[in-house]
Amino acid sequence: MEKNKESAKEKSKKKTGIGRILKIMIPKCFKAAPKHWIFMICTDCTYSVISVALVAIMQHFFDNVSGAVNGTKGINAVIVSLILLGLVNLIQQLLNAIINSTPDIFYQKVNSILTGELHRKISRLKPICFEDTSKLDHINKASQGLANGIRFVSQFGYIFTFYGFYIAAMFIYLMSLNKLLALAILFIFIPTGVSQIIRIKVYNKAEDKSAPIRREYDYYEECMVSRDYFKETRLLGAFGYFKRLYLQALDALQEIKFKASFKTGMLDILLSIITIAGYGSVMFLLFKCLLRGDISVGAFAAVFASVEGLYGMIESMMRYSIGDMATQYGSINNYLDFLQMEEDMGESYEPDEEIEINLDNVSFAYPSDAGEVNAVARREFKYDHYGHLMDSDLLKDVKEEESIKEKKYVIKNCSLHIKKGETVAIVGENGSGKSTIIRLITGLYEPDEGTVSYNGEDISKYRKRDVYKNTSAVFQKFQRYQMTLRENLCISNVEKEADMKTPPEASTDKNDTLTNELNFISEQAGISLDEKTYPEGYDTMLSREFDGVDLSGGQWQRIAIGRAFYRNHGLIVLDEPTSAIDPYEETRIYNQFAKISKDKTSIIVTHRLGSVKLADRIVVMKAGNIVQTGTHDELIQDTEGEYARLYKSQEQWYTA
Asked: What distance lies between CA 118 and its chain's CA centroid?
């Protein structure tokens, strides 16, 4: 309990502090585009100095005009100062054009590099992160947080190099004319700065509320328009249901944004009143200095002409630059939290060609069932009689619970030994824990308790990408890549495909070798290369979106199985990949699987028992526990056992 409170406090500390953002983002942005950044700093500073110099030259010009009218100055002095004023103004306009274009170039350069780093970070996350809703929120928010982080750093630098230099130079100039005048302008910064601090807190809180709702909002949109969902949602009449959920989540998001905008809008009104009052005070003070003879007519005219621009600059800096930084603050911290997510950083490991597996008293619970606070709100909405959203759990603050719920274990105290070269079938009803135990065996997940070992080595201490090197698998939810048939098969071992491809100057023997292997794999997986289904053979594009062909679910499953066969492996797993194939075809594929995986450690996961006789041993699971192990003949003799019950309930599927 105390530990949980401490971790909650640590999380709250991590989410605050502009210093944290700058400390991490400035080195990243500078390293990504150092030349672009240095160039921006130089042009911004030069523009600021030129702008203040323009005010001084304007004063000189007005003094010369006044002197020419009084007869104390010649016309040549007026012409020279006018030409100088024109040249400096031209330089200022050129610099302004450069300043307006360089931030976009800088952003594109940095964003492309840091986005690559973001994707590499995602690839290094432990797979269990994708089962944790709070971590999914971080992943969902990371991309937007990255974009805002780059803008935040750009705006921060802009404040110092562009606004800062200009305001500092103007302050020095005004101090040379009248100290009270300079101090009066600085006074305007105080209420504006306070308002921006409040703005940061408001938008930070709004971002925390919005993130889980946005994830639901995106999912409902996918359910309505995605190719994977549209047939079922329309056929079953579920489109209206998802549309309602989509609009409700959208209402909740808009409500959060409206409240944040309303609060900050009221601050902006107050800021405008203070700005107008300050502007009037400075004008009065400037006029008073002229009447007392503290400043010349030229100085009065120059300051009068430029003070509006100065106030515009201050307002732009406070309301827009700092204001934008305030709205970006929350999402950037989410991106930085994402960067701190635990990665797969174990020791290097070289798996053996033959793998012996041992599970020792393993228990596992998914993060969402492990007592952690789930930030995804319930879908309860209240509307007034005008149809406006009044209240919703989506709009309420997420508060941590005082007590931690007991873990809901999916796998509990399971021990299993799989010998080298042994074929093991894991069977059980849906929800018995078969797929979860496979994820533990393959190293995708790490157990909460107990150990998973390969050849006596605990794999939790090794890098997972090294553990996966000698493993192949087909999962129930396999991927349908919108690429050619060849790419769909070879993607499981791209290094092997590259080795077998032929350089331009070489012969075609290696290409023939690759084709021969693909032919063998296709035959084993049951992929029939007829011209009607695959008109261009292995180069057939498997996607209607890219002018290719569309396949049935069974055809895609055969490709997924072929993909697994193509990969070099000492351990191969088939995790219910034949659900869209009839039982007789399933038996044929499993028999082929037994031949290919001979002398290799193999695991078949299924809830259909007609093909498991080929396994050396059968493991029966029920409610997260291993309840029986043995051969088919041994298990079927226990008429009261789980295996016999399951087999008898399915026996008619396999009887001619």
From this structure: 7
Contact 348, 466 (CB under 8 A): yes
- CA nearest to 149, candidates 333, 323, 339, 338: 333
Give the dihedral sign, CA 202/204/209/214: positive
Q: Using CA atoms, how far apart are residues 600 and 423, in angstroms rounded to an integer? A: 8
The answer for residues whose C-beta is within 8 angstroms of residue 628's C-beta and 6 or more apart is 618, 619, 620, 635, 638, 641, 642, 643
Query: Over 117-140, what HEC string results?
Result: HHHHHHHHECHHHHHCHHHHHHHH
Mean pLDDT across the chain, nearest whole number? 77
Q: What is the pLDDT of residue 389?
A: 44
The torsion region of residue 625 among left (phi > 0), alpha (psi -120 to 50) and beta comes to: beta
Domain architecture of the chain: domains with CATH = 7-339 (1.20.1560.10)
User: In this predicted structure, what is the pLDDT of residue 360?
Assistant: 94
Q: Are 307 and 282 in contact (CB under 8 A)?
A: yes
The length of the chain, given as a count of residues: 656
The 10s digit of each residue's pLDDT in 26-83 is 999 999 999 988 998 888 888 888 888 888 888 888 888 878 877 777 788 888 888 8
Q: What is the mean pLDDT of residues 475-499?
A: 80
Query: What's the half-sphere exposure (Cβ side, CA atoms, 13 Å) at 600?
Result: 21
* Torsion of Cα atoms, 55 then 60 then 65 then 71, to 10°: 160
The answer to whether residues 450 and 401 touch, using CB atoms and an 8 Å cutoff, is no
